[in-house]
Design a protein that fits this description.
Arp2/3 complex 21 kDa subunit ARPC3; mainly alpha; 8 helices
Length: 293
């Protein structure tokens, strides 16, 4: 399959432009340019070499977080899609010859969101979204369990149906949370590293490559933790292979759309993050980033 004609958005020098210096994160500086005359670069952003942490005066740097128009909306959409996926995961659907969870329809989209966050806004934005999704999902599970245990009002006949939809087996709950957390962080880490390796070119290698890694982690963990010891190893491998192939295929098919969304956001947000010297620790929130207020 060829992606010829799709714009990677590689920056080129623009002789007719005016630029302002902006901190992308604690170790990277970018020039954000606006066209004044002549042809402009694909995304209006030129990334310079990393500078030493000691040369950055934090008290003189104005955060660019407030300039992002769509980051909060995208993060909200990411969490909503994740929660809906967990609600519809209970039903096993027949798609062609495959019997799959209803979550397959939506859950792979969360990996596309992860690609967008990391590519446009940086690893810190993706880390923030993943933790919000993690705690949102945990809250759904906890509140669902509490409401199921509360006594039903007289005349309300749907207790069993409600329990079927919102009742999560603790083992499945734990497996889902662990697999989501590990898979999403593996996806974002791979995306950020591949961007540095490719110097921001060949976007498709990052979107597909990160999904190959992230979905492998997610699929192996969720199937092993949920069904390990219940089904024979051969059955587990078949389930893993089927689910993994569908999820990765989803990403491959969505690649042209992912290109369009990412390139549009880069132009609109004037942002193209390169996570040089970024801390990829999932629990690290202390360092200065372009998300700081």
């Amino acid at each position: 399959m060829s992606w010829a004609g799709l714009d990677d958005g590689d920056a080129e020098k623009d002789d007719g432009s005016s630029c302002t210096l902006t901190i992308i994160n604690a170790n990277n500086i970018a020039l954000q340019c606006q066209k004044t005359a002549g042809d402009s670069s694909a995304h209006g952003i030129l990334v310079l070499n990393p500078v030493q942490r000691e040369t950055i005066q934090y008290d003189t740097v104005r955060s660019v977080a407030s300039s992002y128009k769509y980051l909060d909306a995208l993060t909200t959409a990411f969490v909503v899609i994740l929660l809906v996926s967990n609600l519809i995961a209970q039903k096993v659907c027949l798609i062609g010859p495959f019997a799959v969870s209803g979550a397959v329809l939506l859950f792979p989209i969360t990996y596309i969101f992860g690609d967008v966050f990391t590519e446009v806004y940086g690893y810190a934005a993706s880390r923030r979204a993943i933790w919000l999704g993690f705690f949102g999902t945990a809250l759904l599970y906890v509140i669902g369990a509490i409401v199921i245990e509360l006594p039903s009002a007289p005349g309300w006949p749907n207790q069993q149906a409600f329990a079927t939809v919102f009742g999560f087996i603790p083992r499945i709950l734990a497996a889902s949370l662990i697999a989501f957390w590990a898979g999403e962080f593996a996806n974002s880490y791979t995306m950020a590293r591949l961007k540095l390796i490719t110097d921001g070119r060949k976007l498709w290698t990052r979107t597909i490559g990160s999904t190959v890694v992230g979905q492998a982690v997610d699929t192996v963990l969720v199937i092993t933790l949920t069904f390990g010891g219940i089904y024979p190893v051969r059955t587990l491998l078949n389930i893993m292979a089927t689910g993994y192939a569908l999820k990765v295929g989803y990403e491959v098919i969505a690649t042209p759309l992912t290109y369009l969304v990412i390139n549009w956001l880069k132009r609109t947000e004037h942002s193209d993050a390169f996570d040089r010297h970024q801390s990829f620790n999932p629990f690290s929130f202390a360092e200065k980033s372009n998300l700081d207020d």
